[in-house]
Amino acid sequence: MPDTLSDTLSALADPTRRAILARLALGEATVGELARPFAMSGPAVTKHLNVLEKAGLIRRGRDAQRRPCRLEATRLREAAEYLVGFRQFWEGSLDRLEDYLQELQKKE
Asked: What is the pTM of this model?
C-alpha cells in the first residue's frame, strides 16, 4: 500500500514546491508561467513538478500546444486532516503554559 501522506509531506518540504502549489491555487499555469518567479531553468521547475505530480498534488494536462498544470487538493486535505491532531496538542500545551504562568503571577 503506498504511503501517500509521506509522499505529500516530502513534496511539501521544499519551499519552491510550496510556492508552485500556492500559484496553482490561483488557477492552472504552464511550466513557463510557473518558472517565471524563480531564478531557475524550465527543466529545474519540471523536476519540482515531477515530484508534485508523483505525490498526487498536481495534474498535468494537454490543451493543444499548452501543457497546463492544475492543483489536486485531495492529498493536501489528507495532510491537513493528519496535522489537525497536532494543532490540538499545541493548543493544549499553550493552554497549560498559560495556566502555569497565571499561577506564577498569583504567587508574586
From this structure: 0.76
Between CA 40 and CA 46, with CA 44 as vertex, the angle to 5 degrees is 125
pLDDT of 1 > 70? The answer is: no
Residue for grid cell 493536501:
76
State which H helix or E strand residue 58 sits in. Answer: strand 58-60
Ordered structural domains, the chain, with CATH? 4-107 (1.10.10.10)
Q: What is the pLDDT of residues 3-34, one digit of tens each?
A: 889 999 999 999 999 999 999 999 999 988 99
Q: What is the DSSP letter of 14?
A: S
Q: What is the pLDDT of residue 62?
A: 79
**31 touches 42 (CB < 8 A):** yes
**DSSP string of 60-95, one letter each residue:** E--BTTB--EEE--HHHHHHHHHHHHHHHHHHHHHH
